[in-house]
Specification:
By secondary structure, the chain is α+β, with helices and mostly antiparallel strands. The chain has 2 domains: 6-30 and 204-323; 33-198, Beta Polymerase, domain 2. The chain is built from 13 helices and 7 strands. Strands 1, 2, 3, 4, 5, 6 and 7 form a 7-stranded mixed sheet that branches. Helix 1 (6-13) runs parallel beside helix 13, helix 9 (218-234) crosses helix 10 (245-253) and helix 11 packs antiparallel against helix 13.
């Protein structure tokens, strides 16, 4: 049974349809021009700083964007930036039906002769030290498991997260072509020596495609729900990190296109229609077992058992706070 949340219901009761539509029109907008300019300036500063690092130049480290900023789902007053510092060494992962030795030979992989653990530690140290020299060591936080954080300067620079990572090749057997294929992404080795795979380029491309197929409504709905999540955090209905933006984006992407395309819907009806569908999907075992991240590769709920509970809680609260 769905648990009632009276703070969420109070949000629904406090607003008329007209006030909801006015609020949603504001919520669907991306960062302002001034915020975008500040974001771009901060990203450029980090790239310029790392372009002077001798070790990074020799290792051919690439500084690339990812996250809400890259995917144009950031909202107003959400100006943080996610960048990745990608080392060209390749982590190879194999599908269950692949013979690793055979695929390794056929695809012509070689070895750099370096251990990933050593290279990851050096990459992390070089990024932290170089950023510390530029922005001041007190403005750098390298204590996290994955990201190195550059603290914000209000009115000048938003917070920046730089994630050291490697290239990733996921090798599979293409039955139709009768040959090996690869899906390319990134692999993050955190400070606890755990690997995380990610596919930011596929995420980016599929978001653009979904936006086009839904008459530009997909990313607007994502922004609306991110702002609604922030309201629920302010009322303490949700914890600050309980529902990350990536989860919201993946849940909205999983809603079939036709739910975005009912022309008689206003913003309020469209949001309700999509939230109801999200709620149905995360409470249906067949749907949530088959659900994928927005990249279309990783299982949305298989890798992180806490995600499903977070998704169910968020969709319940989102419906209560908009419909009561």
């Amino acid at each position: 049974m769905q648990q009632r949340n009276y703070l969420a219901e109070a949000l629904a009761q406090a607003r008329t349809r007209q006030s909801w539509n006015e609020r949603l029109e504001h919520w669907e907008r991306p960062a302002s021009d001034s915020e975008e300019a500040m974001i771009e300036r901060a990203a450029r500063m980090v790239r310029n700083v790392m372009s002077r690092n001798v070790w990074s130049i020799g290792e051919r480290i690439q500084i690339e964007p990812q996250g809400s900023y890259y995917n144009n789902t950031n909202v107003r007053r959400e100006s943080d930036i996610d960048l990745r510092a990608t080392h060209p060494d390749i982590l190879i992962q194999y599908a269950p039906n692949v013979v690793p030795q055979a695929a390794y030979y056929v695809l012509g992989y070689g070895s750099s002769g370096k251990a990933f653990v050593d290279t990851a530690a050096r990459l992390r140290r070089e990024v932290a030290d170089e950023l510390g020299r530029e922005f001041g060591i007190l403005n750098i936080d390298a204590s996290g498991k994955k990201a190195i954080k550059v603290k914000a300067v209000p009115g000048s620079r938003p917070p920046v997260d730089v994630v050291p990572c490697f290239r990733l090749h996921y090798v599979f057997w293409n039955t139709n072509a009768q040959q090996y294929g690869t899906v390319q992404g990134i692999a993050i080795l955190d400070r606890d020596l755990n690997w995380t795979s990610s596919y930011p380029d596929q995420h980016h491309a599929r978001g653009i495609d979904k936006r086009a197929r839904t008459q530009l409504r997909f990313k607007k709905i994502v922004r609306m729900l991110k702002r609604l999540r922030d309201e629920l955090i302010q009322t303490s209905a949700l914890g600050p990190k309980e529902v990350p933006s990536f989860l919201i984006e993946s849940l909205v992407h999983g809603v079939e296109d036709q739910y975005f395309l009912v022309e008689q819907d206003d913003r309020y009806d469209r949001l309700l229609r999509i939230v109801r569908r999200m709620g149905a999907q995360v409470h249906d075992q067949a749907c949530y077992n088959a659900a994928l991240e927005i990249n279309g590769i990783n299982s949305l709920f298989g890798a992180d058992p806490t995600r499903l509970a977070s998704a169910q809680k968020f969709t319940n609260l989102a419906l209560q706070s908009t419909y009561g």
